[in-house]
Amino acid sequence: MSDDKQRNSNGSEPRSGGNVWFVLIAIVSAVLLSAFLFGGSDMRLRYPDLMKLLAAMAEARQADNPLMPLNDQGNLESSPKVDEAATKVGDAARAEGSTDAVEAETGTEETAVVAAKPDAESAKTGSTEDGTAAKKIIDPKVTVIVPSTKNDGQVEFGGLEDVRVADGEITGTVAYRTRGIDNKGPVGPYRMVEFKTIRDTNNEAEHKRLVEYLNASGVTWDNARPSRLFRDHWPELLMIGVLVILGVIMLRRLGGVGSPMAFSRSRGKLYGQEELAIKFDDAAGISEAVQEVREVVDFLKNSDKYKSLGGRIPKGVLLVGPPGTGKTLLAKAIAGEAGVPFFSLSGSDFVEMYVGVGAARVRDMFQQATNRAPCIIFIDELDALGKSRSGSTVGGHDEREQTLNALLVEMDGFDSNSGVIVVAATNRPETLDPALLRPGRFDRHVLVDRPDISGREDILRVHVKNVRLDEKVDLKDIASITPGFVGADLANLVNEAALLAARAEKRAVGIHEFNEAVERVTAGLEKKNRVMNEDEKIRVAYHEAGHALVAAALPNADPVHKVSIIPRGLAALGYTMQRPESERYLMTKSELESNMKVLLAGTLTEEMIFQDISTGAQNDLERCTEVARSIVMDYGMSRLGRINFRRSSKSAFLAGGGGDGFQMSHSEEMAKLIDKEVARIIEDELTQTREILEQRREVLEAVTQKLLEVESINNDELTQLIKDNGSGPWLVPGTVKQKPRAQIKSDEDDSGLAVAD
After folding, report:
1. What's 534-725's CATH class?
2. pTM of the full predicted structure?
3. Tell me: the pLDDT tens digits for 378-417?
4. For the domain 269-447, what is the CATH superfamily, name and number?
5. Is 453-523 a domain of CATH 1.10.260.40?
6. Is residue 103 within 8 Å of residue 182, measured between CB atoms?
7. Cα(first)–Cα(last) distance of the chain, in Å?
């Protein structure tokens, strides 16, 4: 066995509890089998029938020994008498060698007594009806025939032996065989079985009467009973065993792996080198992040180079970024490139309800890693473990804080050149404790941000390797229509496009499927079966046409990609999709104002056409108000001055922010002024937007009519409608401004100037 396989087999221990259902089925089967084997092993012999059998045996004993004093027989005056006719018939039948005993017919409720020959005893061996081994079989001298308790037939008892008398029941052995109904049918052989009789009455007189019958019949009996612990209490013992087994299983599930009390064992999963086939080439679209972590891989491969120069590799690497950007994938690529063991676990795996368990798991995790160095420990969702301790109200002694303290100590405790590197990932770095982020623990912070257009193209190229694409599909065009998409979104996009092509019975995935997939991801599924009445449909068409016209009339607004009145998602009755022409990281005041105008255009169009507004603009107004408030409070673009009135708690690591919390830093009087300024800005934008729509009324009607006919139009169709129905300047006067004089010179221009000199 190779070293990697040994590591894998030792580290990735299987978790218990996966076969719980199998254990439960086995337990239920054992219960049923025990009930079958032990539940019906005792033959039921009714107390009156037992007394009649004892009386018959006593009379037979008296007949065999007439000189026996009556006092030795007990008081038998109340005992039932043996039917002499039945006895004679039985003796005659036995004398003729008949195999069937003749039964005296005394009615259904009465018991018949048959006397056998005294010398007919013979020891035999047989088997019971259920297949179990029977005791010795004899031909009893005296028997009683009684109705069966299981069916309409009859049974015959005799040969009573080894009677044990207890307070509530009587047990012993008796010869037993089945008979037919009304003395018809086959007669089975005798077999010795154990019987149990429940005493109906247990008073002193009845007990004295029973003792007299036992003494007179000559049966061996005793009050002492043998130990029958398992036979009498097997259900209780079985249930105790079941509870013990289930308790062990639950303890193993709570404790992870190992023994039932192994709560302190780490739950990290160890991946061997053969299981990590991911390389840096698979982590496309995050080239900057890959370059940052290449030094970690180089250290793990060539650690002597750094040690000889006195260099120190970072103890920890913190990967931060929005969800779905590939942080976990990058961590696996580090281990795959380095060719070292890879421990993977989540921050929540350390958190436990029992105090001290999380800290013990941290210590065990680092102990395992040290034994397998060089290796990588990857902690996903670090914020579940490393939240800041400043906001704790427990006094610093809760389980989570103890676990965090143990992590801090372990990261500070082991040698920096020991070959153990901690890689963690989180999308909420603003919540982490500052002690984790200081140098010496997580020295290097690597941003895994949303990819740009070239990064998205690279990611798409990775995900379409196994997809049959149409020849006309250009991945660059798809990357251009997916701004803001992360790696997970692009993977889902490719999968949705493939599903759409398969649904349409196409042999390859075309650009149409990708466009439809983008709309499904961003706007939701089409609700073609949702039927709107004519008034609502016309109102929605005017609403979306207003958005599109204002966006097309403003040069600093994102171009319109598609306008549709087909309902999508949960609440959208229509939508206007805008897509930026390039990656944007800054927004100017005029661009923010243009976005506000586009958002307000829908409700203003309804007001112009219908002299009434609807509730369909709720989301537009919400977004417009937030933009206006950000202009005043965050960006300092209002008349209140270049002042920031609220402090953002968004992440400093993420370009798009990693949180949405704010802390207000102004007085109540200033709050009133802010509200007035926000209202003034929105009112100014409403006035300007109304003028844009009134000047382009003809185009508005043409676009609306086209939407009612075809339900959706793209950018080219919108542009053609504007050319055919517009008059005068289309762009809003004053929005096109002179470009700045300063320009970025290319390398060719620099080289040309150098030659000229």
Report:
1. mainly alpha
2. 0.60
3. 888 888 888 877 655 444 456 677 888 888 888 876 555 5
4. P-loop containing nucleotide triphosphate hydrolases (3.40.50.300)
5. no
6. no
7. 71
